[in-house]
Amino acid sequence: MADNAHRGEAARRVLGTAVLLLVMAGCGERFPDPSQQGEFDRVVLLEEATGTWCVNCPAVAENIQTLLADYPGEFIAIALHSQTQDPYSTEETEERLSDFSVDAFPTVIFDGVEAYEGVQTVEEMAQVLSDRRALGTAVKLELDASLTADSVLYEVTVIVSGQTEESIEGILRIALIEDTLTHATAGLLHHIVRRLPEEEAAMTLNPGDSLDLHRSLPLDVSWGRPLTAVVWVEDPDHKVYQAASHEVGGGSYVHGDFSIELVSDSIQTDTLGAILNFYFDLKNHTGNILTLTVDVPEASQYLPENWWFSLCDEQNCYPVPTDFEVPANGTLEGLHVTIGSSILDQETEGKVIMTVTSGEEVDSQTFILEIE
User: Going from the N-terminus, what domains does the chain have, and what CATH number goes with each?
Assistant: First the structure.
């Protein structure tokens, strides 16, 4: 398979079972699919044929990230890795690439009907995206996805426009995408297809239909977070009518988005007058920067009258609550709660309960100083 076989202007291919038309990119020509026009906004499916071994693929991947930032919600990107030396290549991704007879990398495929070989600029891809969006579609997809301990559940509603005059032969495809990870040689990777089951039997979608469909995919706990559930409806020739996605959470299944990792014991013993540090790390289990709010609410401070506590790192102490930024898939180290006892009190124990919050997720840790 060639790596960026076309190094001048990229070739555009109109994909189909009967004809393969080659034209030069940037000609401004649009390739409408009349059977797919309709009343609903189209979310375009962009499939990126790529590989960790591919020298020119990172440039296209970077341009796709820029396009996603510039046109949020208008398209969904999935990365199909290929070849045995690529650890993210699977039989499922290879089969999908075979469906399109991809033999050059990188190749970018829009809605299963237009393929661009070579490095595409943001402007070139934006034009194709605009053309595809302008078509509209007769199909609307609503997707809700959720995690269980060992799978992702897909709740899909397929709605067919009552304005369309003909029935549609549609195939529901589902995929599971790992959003971001770092490869030792290829660097930062996005939208990696982890699961893409073989296509189901075609459904006959009649004008005005509304179908509720339920699917699931097994999980591998080694996959990073966040994960994204993706669905689309295509015809038997792989022309895509509509696509939808739903992020199914950052974090790990055990820890969630973040965790408090104890470095020292949470219960320590000393004599009156002692000042002890309780060390902990904050670990981010997602592929995004997390802002974590660390607090010790007044109602959670169970200290004798003359005892005190502080929240510090190796250089500074902070008021509570305080926000800390933890890098993607990273760890903030050196944090500690200090509890100071006093010889003025003859108490035998003091404790504080620290909470760490990100969005709706809350974790807590109790630190106890016992006096001998």
Answer: 9-247 (2.60.40.10), 258-371 (2.60.40.10)
